[in-house]
Amino acid sequence: MSDSSELTTFTGWAATTAGAPLERYSYDPGPLGNDEVEVAVEYCGVCHSDQSLIDDDWGISRYPFIPGHEVVGRIVRMGAQVRGLEPGQRVGIGWYKGSCMHCTSCIEGSHNLCSTVQPTIIGSNGGFADRVRSHWAWALPIPAGLDPAMAGPLFCAGSTVFNPLVEFGIKPTDRVGVVGIGGLGHLALRFLNAWGCEVTAFTSSLSKQEEARRLGAHKVVASTDSDALNAIAGTLDFLLVTANANLDWTAMLATLRGKGRLHFVGVVPDAIPVHVFNLIPQQKTMSASPVGSPANTAAMLEFCARHQILPQVEMFPMSRINDAIDHLRSGKARYRVVLDASK
User: Fold this and answer.
1) Which fold has domain 159-288?
2) I want to staple 97 with a disulfide (CB 3.0 to 4.6 A). Which of 120, 184, 243, 309 is the partner?
3) Membrane-spanning residues where (predicted)?
4) Could you please report the per-residue DSSP string of 99-163?
């Protein structure tokens, strides 16, 4: 919907039990908060995190709920305290849609680290719907140079892999590896290539070698080949793990130079067995991070507009949401799925 009329109910596609097909669902959103914007959804990405919550993989899902946290749409209503936005403006909303705005993290600009940050689809309803709401600070304007039909995944996958480049001061002269060429990894390759880095892609499927190079990798290494890993030992400054897989983390750490960092944005299944003596001698670091702050996400959007970086997407009508989720579950998505709310 694109008009500014007040809706007393929002309608979307809800998960009602773990793993079941999504069903049509309507709910009363209540009064619009003073600091909230109401967005008429135009497009919404389908992320693996949506699937995880639909299936209750993390044990925190509360049914029924409407998934969808890579939202693109236009502002149709604004609370009295909204600042810096206008009715009709096209914005995006990602994994988070609100934070307290007064804690130390929020005050210093790290709203994504707020202890009471509000996820868009945990304990709330998201963007597989006609409308969604968020705090105005988390509704970010989309630069005119970006195709709105493809921009949704930037607000989750894009922000997640861009955030550590800013937080850890990655330099254009750095040699950077990306583990996993999927929804997050394919964007990381594009970002790092445009950033000016020498980029090495690590993949368990060397059939993706040419595709990885097309996406921006200068080199491709088999992530499960110990000889290939040994051959590049001590060459990388930063290794970004986007894959959700268990790997030989000692061997991965060995690819780093002194002061190198092994950084996780993918949720690997098991605990990471690494001995501290693999870190101490060359002052190596292991770390992890969530989706970026509103400021870092806005910077990412400007970077993407400047370099014309967009995710590789497959489009589905919103009415075929269950087909889209099945396609994601099959592992065949290349590399993000986006729903068109007009169909």
Assistant:
1) Rossmann fold (3.40.50)
2) 120
3) none
4) --SSSHHHHTT-GGG-TT-EESSSSS--SSBSEEEEEGGG-EEPPTTS-HHHHGGGGTHHHHHHH
